[in-house]
Design a protein that fits this description.
The complex is a heterodimer.
Chain A (H helix, E strand, L loop, with lengths): L1 H7 L3 H10 L4 H21 L3 H23 L14 H31 L13
Chain B lengths: L2 H26 L10 H26 L11 H21 L5 E4 L17 E12 L2 E10 H24 L7 E7 L5 E4 L3 H20 L3 H19 L6 H32 L7 E4 L5 E4 L2 H5 L12 H7 L1 H10 L4 H18 L3 H18 L8 H4 L5 H9 L2 H11 L6 H24 L3 H21 L3 H29 L15 H15 L2 E2 L3 E2 L1 H19 L5 H25 L6 H6 L5 H16 L10 H7 L9 E5 L2 E5 L8 H26 L6 H7 L1 H8 L4 H73 L6 H28 L1
Classes of the chains: A mainly alpha, B mainly alpha.
């Protein structure tokens, strides 16, 4: 628990150093999730291809999913936890479902956009700007 | 045959028939045929129904009370009639008792003491409907039917029938659009308006209904209601051509002048009600305070109680009312024992009465009611409206002047007669005398044919009033009836002349007898009737009998009261003037050669629908005064209704010294009768001869006479300057007060209100400035700031998706940084 408390703080040096010699815990999952999330954001921000942006969105969502699952792992929960401990997994499943739906809609939009503009370059999608 | 139940039904229906016609024409008039042509038939049918019902009532009356010659000294016939009447009234009471009608007997029935001056006239009275009952006041729609009522019904409905028929011809101009040549519009053209045929007959029906209402009325309150209805009808009809300024002025004048008289009448009504608590003529049965039916004595039996042999006395109520302070003292003294107090007051009333308490009240009541009659019957000083009333269509003039409006006043004096004291009667006689003289002199010089007739009406009404005032009850009402016939005849004749000549000016007429023989002949009959032509002591036209009766009674009165001989001279002089101006009219109109050929060539005899009523009325103008060998005749019929207590000579001393009102039958005796008849014949003949000398044979030139008596002539031609006098005394002060009031209104009140309005406006202006600058400015500033902020923020909307993602990321990171710093700060704090 102490590790977790220090891990959440941004006084980074002891945390990063401790990651490598500590047994695998929530903090490691969080790092993976953060990397996924950051990659996704960077992908969304830099890609001009709409499909690339969609992929970035998937990465962001899955980075969040990793965090949810990590936080709901029974190993990581306190002893006195009253619940069944499935809420994190359920949210993750829900997010996956949502991502599927979102991907379907987004792909449809992209397809339509392509039909109208003969491109999937999102920089060209500025018809609604103020 | 039960007259007590039949007469009210018959006369009530006769009374209501014109109302039905009025309502029908009011709602459906314009839809009755082309331009409402059939409205005339509806109205005529209604009045003919009334006439037939009145005649049926007349027959019923005659069956129950046969008209026989009155033998003075022996009243066997009347006692007999009285007995029949008592029986009938009791029967009626049984008949109607179950549905709340109150049939009462006109006067106390337990009176058979054979007192000479106490014959009770046969009469039926009762109520159809009680309008209001509170305290001692009971206002009801009821009837008082005696021979006079029945006679007036027949006369009014008959004349009205003639006039309806005549009017359906006379008013035919109103059947299509009318161009009124007497109305000049602002652009100089003449008024063009749609015809008003149905409206004329509608008002005529209401007029007849109102007049019959006065005649049948069983109490003074009902009389007053219909009195006012007659007034408003006259206003409608006189102002029928209301676009003409003269007509609307005349209508207003008639109405307002009548209101002046009605004010006096209201005072009289209040005096009677305040002191006596009843306005019913006859005794009536009404639910008392305790719920039991009680006989409530009417005015007649209060003023002439049976105990005193129907001699006039101040009623108890008036004595107590006049001595209210003493009554109050006694009531206080006997506080707690009201019965004893009442007994004490009752015991003293006789004393108080002999001290003269209440006499003034009775005098005021009588004079007050007479004031109303002065207005309606156009007596001095309120006669000025009647000549102006000529502005109405001629049939209306005929109706107003003969059977309806002006007759109402004379009728009411006749109806109210038992309550009038000798002093009131003297007032009536003097007013009548003044009226007849003034009006006759004005008629001498008038040139408008209808105006001559109008002043002659005023003069003849003066005759009637004078006759009533000098004790000639029967003479006055006799003259009312005969005058109704020949005056309506004269008016319809004049209408026929005007119809033919299209002018009222007699100076443009002349020689019309050739082209209008029927009109000329019937008008001659009318003229002869009004001057009382006849062969002395043998036979004469209707006016002969009535005028002789008036003259004889005036002579009888002046012999009994030598200081009032002037009244007799007024009557005799009036007879001369009447003869002169009536024949002046006839000669100027019909005799000689045409003065204006344009008028004469245009003239033609009127259509049959107009001539027929003339002939019918002419026949009645001849025969109305005759008494048949069996005793049947108007004079004897009227005797049946002779008010109680007027058979004997009465004497009284009050305001004007001792006045003796001689019994009327004395005037039929020897010397008086002969003198009066000879005087009447001589004066009338002299008048006709003078008129013939001036206008037929041209021995004396009217122009010369006029120039010799220039001041007198212009005085008369200007109608004694009465209009100018009233203008100066009443109209101008009213205008002055009105202009003062309007000046105050404009100068003070309007200024003040304008000032208030100006301040409010200024305040509102300031308020508006605050609203525009501050409030609006604030709102606009907010709006414009929002607008500009929006414009600035719009630049962020670049439409670049990746940029938005960058913003999100940067924003999120910034939020996290911020939150962690705050978190830190929170932990540290």
């Amino acid at each position: 628990m102490n590790t977790l408390a220090t891990g959440l703080s941004f006084a980074a040096t002891p945390l990063v150093a401790g990651l490598f010699d500590a047994p695998v815990g929530v903090a490691h999952y969080l790092v993976v999730g953060a990397i996924l999330f950051t990659s996704g954001v960077v992908c969304m921000a830099l890609k001009r291809n709409a499909l690339g942006v969609l992929m970035g969105i998937e990465l962001v969502l899955n980075g969040a999913n990793v965090n949810f699952v990590a936080f709901s792992s029974p190993y990581l929960r306190g002893e006195g936890a009253a619940s069944l401990g499935l809420d994190g997994q359920l949210i993750a499943l829900f997010v996956i479902l949502l991502a599927a739906a979102e991907a379907a809609v987004a792909l449809a939009i992209t397809l339509n956009f392509y039909n109208n503009h003969a491109t999937v370059d999102i920089d060209r999608a500025d018809d609604l700007k103020g | 045959m039960d007259p007590a139940s039949q007469l009210p039904t018959l006369l009530g229906l006769a009374w209501l028939a014109p109302l039905v016609s009025f309502v029908a024409i009011l709602f459906f008039g314009p839809r009755m045929g082309h331009h409402g042509r059939n409205a005339a038939w509806v109205a005529t049918a209604a009045i003919v129904t009334s006439l037939l019902l009145s005649l049926a009532a007349f027959g019923t009356w005659l069956a129950a009370h046969p008209v026989t010659a009155v033998a003075h000294g022996s009243h066997a016939a009347e006692v007999d009639g009285h007995a029949t009447d008592t029986h009938a009234a009791e029967a009626a009471h049984v008949d109607h008792g179950d549905h709340g009608d109150h049939d009462g007997h006109a006067s106390p029935s337990d009176h058979h003491d054979g007192h000479h001056a106490a014959t009770v006239p046969a009469a039926y009275a009762g109520d159809w409907y009680t309008l209001y009952q509170g305290g001692s006041l009971r206002l009801s729609i009821g009837w008082y039917i005696d021979a006079l009522t029945v006679l007036m019904f027949v006369v009014v409905t008959f004349i009205a029938t003639c006039i309806h028929i005549y009017a359906s011809g006379y008013m035919h101009d109103e059947l299509h659009d009318v161009t009124d040549h007497e109305v000049h519009l602002a652009d100089g053209s003449h008024l063009h308006r749609p015809g008003r045929f149905p409206r004329f007959f509608q008002a005529l029906s209401l007029f007849c209904f109102s007049m019959l209402g006065i005649v049948i009325a069983g109490n003074l309150a009902m009389v007053f209601i219909f009195w006012e209805l007659v007034g408003i009808c006259s206003w409608f009809l006189i102002g029928f051509y209301f676009e003409r300024k003269s007509a609307s002025t005349a209508a207003n004048k008639a109405f307002i002048v009548n209101r002046v008289g009605d004010f006096g009448m209201l005072i009289g009504l209040m005096a009677l009600w305040g002191a006596l608590g009843t306005l019913h003529f006859a005794d009536s049965t009404a639910a008392g305070v305790d719920g039991h039916a009680a006989v409530q004595p009417g005015l007649f039996s209060l003023v002439r109680p049976a105990e005193s042999g129907h001699a006039l006395q101040v009623p108890d109520g008036m004595v107590k009312f006049a001595n209210a302070s003493e009554v109050g003292r006694i009531t206080t003294e006997y506080a707690g024992r009201p019965a004893d107090g009442a007994a004490e007051v009752a015991a003293r009333v006789r004393d108080w009465r002999s001290q003269g308490y209440g006499r003034w009240l009775l005098f005021i009541a009588g004079v007050g009611i007479f004031c109303g009659c002065v207005g309606k019957s156009a007596q001095f000083p309120l006669f000025v409206w009647l000549p102006d009333a000529m502005e109405g269509p001629t049939p209306v003039s005929a109706l107003v002047h003969s059977a309806t409006m002006v007759a109402a006043g004379v009728y009411l004096v006749g109806r109210f007669y038992p309550v009038l004291t000798p002093d009131v009667l003297l007032v009536i006689a003097v007013i009548g005398g003044i009226t007849l003289f003034i009006a006759a002199t004005i008629a001498l010089v008038a040139n408008d044919i209808k105006r001559v007739l109008a002043y002659s009406t005023v003069s003849q009404l003066g005759y009637m009033m004078l006759a009533l005032g000098v004790g000639g009850w029967s003479a006055g009402l006799f003259h009312l009836v005969t005058h109704a016939f020949f005056k309506s005849l004269l008016f319809l004749c004049s209408g026929s002349v005007i119809h033919a000549c299209h002018t009222n000016d007699m100076r443009k007429m002349g020689g019309l007898a050739r082209v209008m023989p029927w009109t000329a002949g019937t008008m001659l009959v009318g003229c002869l009737a009004i001057i009382g032509a006849g062969i002395p002591f043998v036979i004469g036209l209707s006016g002969y009998y009535s005028k002789d009766a008036i003259l004889a009674q005036a002579l009888s009165y002046s012999q009994a009261n030598p200081s009032w001989t002037i009244l007799y001279y007024a009557v005799a002089g009036g007879a001369f003037l009447t003869a002169f101006y009536m024949f002046r009219l006839w000669f100027m109109t019909f005799a000689g050669t045409p003065r204006d050929h344009h008028v004469a060539d245009h003239a033609h005899e009127s259509p049959n629908v107009m001539v027929a009523p003339l002939v019918a009325l002419a026949v009645l103008a001849i025969v109305a005064g005759w008494t048949l060998p069996g005793g049947f005749g108007l004079a004897n019929l009227l005797e049946q209704a002779r008010p109680i207590g007027t058979e004997a000579t009465t004497s009284d001393t009050f305001l004007f010294g001792t006045l003796t009102v001689p019994a009327e039958h004395l005037s039929h005796e020897g010397a008086i009768h002969v003198t009066a008849t000879l005087t009447a014949f001589t004066t009338a003949a002299a008048g006709v001869l003078l008129a013939a000398a001036m206008y037929l044979w041209r021995i004396i030139s009217p122009a010369t006479v006029a120039s010799v008596f220039r001041p007198l002539y212009s005085f008369l031609a200007n109608r004694w300057y009465f209009d100018e006098l009233y203008n100066a005394i009443f109209v101008r002060p009213v205008f002055a007060v009105a202009s003062l009031a309007s000046g105050t209104d404009r100068g003070v009140i309007d200024r003040f209100i304008e000032g208030v309005a100006w301040s409010a406006r200024q305040l509102a202006g300031f308020d508006a400035w605050i609203d525009r600058t501050l409030v609006d400015g604030l709102v606009n500033a907010t709006a414009s700031a929002t607008w500009h902020a929006g414009l600035e923020l719009k630049k962020l909307q670049t439409g670049r998706l990746r940029q938005y993602v960058m913003f999100i990321v940067v924003g999120t990171v910034a939020l996290f940084v911020l939150a962690s710093m705050l978190f830190r700060a929170g932990l540290a704090g």
